[in-house]
Amino acid sequence: MVVQPDPANSDSQSTVVDVDRSSSVVNPSADLESASASVSPIPHPVIDTEGDDQNNLSIKIRKRDYGFLPIPKNRRHDPHKKVDEEFGFTWKMNLVFAFAATVSVMNLYYIQPMLVAIASDFSVSHSRISSIPTLVQGGYGTGIIFISPLGDLVRRRQLVLLLILLTTILSIGLALAPSVAVLEGISFIVGMLTVTPQICIPWTADLAPANKRATAMSITLSGLIFGLVLGRVLGGILSRFGSWRDTYWLAVGLQGCMTVILYFTLPDTPDKKIGLSYFGVLWSMAKFFTMYPTLVQACLVSFFSSAVFAGFWTSLTFVLNNSPYHYNSFEIGLFGLLGLIGAILAPQWGRLVDRTHPYLGQISGISINMISMVVALVGADKNISAVCIAIVGYDMGQQLAQVSSSYRIAGLDPKARARLNGCSLLAVFAGQTSGTAILTHIYNTHGWKPTGGTAVAFIGAALVVLFIRGPHEIGWIGWHGGGQILKKEKMTDLSPEAITEKLRVKKKETEKEKGGGQQV
């Protein structure tokens, strides 16, 4: 552990810096990937302008959200205290983050099983109504780029409450939509505002203790997966046995309850004081791809694995609808419940990542994906057991790989976690969009076997990306530092500059050894 003075306190208290050896670079300007430090957020003074004397610059506690809504007393931040000591990070708070992710992300998936019912209600063609899921996902991608980075710029309590409140109000509009055009417009905006999970995941990384960070992040991430599955299932059930509008009324109720819960539980942690404008924040996301090899590696792996995940589920719908199964849409939708197994196991994967190097989780997860896709390639069009094994296996592998990638990325720069998470999600979004288009086209043109073969090739590409750059590599390609992944390494009592120098010396020694071996 690196102990540094805490500027928020004038006494001898200190800030603990946990050094994550998941990746590394040799730039001493916080671009260190092997010396990436997880720093407990340092509280910053808040000037209270609510008093009568506007010239009074004494440090006071912020008491209101948005200038008028009182913050519960136990959720207010005292600038004289460190955030981790003031609020801590309990299982209760972790579950609240997970529940918020579940309720929020369901907005993206209600629509998928309801398309036929909506088309019938408005008397429009299936091709016209199919534009709505595209608009929802397009809005979501827009939100990832332009809204989720705000998690590094503003106070997150106010941001999350505002996002949930707006999607609650807009869900009323969806339930009352008089036409397809209105439904399309509101759906895009709802998708754009449904980025609460992408605020909560890096927020979890900031608040959780370093030795439990992966476990905490996996719990929040499992909430997102639950939402993905439950949104489809509830949308299918309510539209089949009631009205599709009932689904959106349910969404209004769930999000309304979530808003109240979040109001009383979210801590008013300070913003990160990164010193950037909004456009500077967006530009910094682009620069990250030139600064962090670990980020690029994780994004490429996520692109290929997400492409298969989305394309496999879309193609599987056609496989199960045709011979020898002939399942209807409701029966096909129930297969989504198998995905809950992966969500339930996600916290166990987090504990594994907390105890080992996250590179092991990435390799293991993608390897499980490969085995699952081979099973699907061989038997998905012949035996339902092969379908079930592939669904459960791929979902488990995907969760393990995703938790590991999120953990590695979160350790690159504590003040940029929301932006780094946004970069990763852009890769996931691009992969899902590309995978759906490519694998669906191949299935419609050539059938299941070429589709499954392409999926296996995509997973193979993800494994290649992992194998060409080792867990301790400083640069873009290679295995400098060896392949130790069974036990997490720790460097203690070193300043960031000392860590940088140690890594530089270590790399030079490795290069000399290789050069000497060649001369002999």
UniProtKB/TrEMBL annotation:
What does the record give as the organism's lineage?
A: Eukaryota, Fungi, Dikarya, Basidiomycota, Agaricomycotina
Q: Where in the cell is it found?
A: Membrane
Q: Which Pfam families match?
A: MFS_1
Fetch the CDD domains from UniProt.
MFS_NepI_like (cd17324)
Transmembrane stretches in the record are 91-111, 131-147, 159-180, 217-241, 247-264, 301-320, 332-350, 362-380, 425-444, 450-468
Mark out the compositionally biased spans (Low complexity): 10-26
The alphabetical list of record keywords is: Membrane, Transmembrane, Transmembrane helix
Q: Where is the Major facilitator superfamily (MFS) profile domain?
A: 93-473
Annotated protein name in UniProt: Membrane protein
Q: What segment(s) does the record annotate as region Disordered?
A: 1-53
Q: Does the keyword Transmembrane apply?
A: yes
Cellular component, GO annotation: membrane
Task: Point out the coiled-coil segments of this chain.
Answer: none
Q: Which InterPro entries match?
A: MFS, MFS_dom, MFS_trans_sf
Membrane-topology annotation of the record: Multi-pass membrane protein
GO terms, molecular function: transmembrane transporter activity
Q: Which organism is it from?
A: Kwoniella mangroviensis CBS 10435
